[in-house]
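Researcher: Next entry in the queue.
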Amino acid sequence: MIGFARLAVFGLIGMTIAFWLLRIYFSSTQREELEKQWDADHPDGGDAAARDAYIDGGMAEYRKSLGRKLIWLVYVIPTLAVLVLLYLTNEY
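Model: Structure for this entry, 92 residues:
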């Protein structure tokens, strides 16, 4: 029982670290894509306030997107895998 508790605690810590790293990475790549798109559309640089508003609007859309919600699978898939393995090990 202690081994399972240790697995659960360290697994949760590992999944949380992976979740935050993926979340930060995907957000930064989305922001970089928006910045590149703005630069391609406005070769002269454009208005700085309009650029910030464009990027903020794009990031707000990203926060509502399915891609951001799929990052939660970092918790779901390993947990389901461990539960299935425990079930199969104890059943047979």
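Model: The radius of gyration is 20 Å.
Researcher: Noted, moving on.
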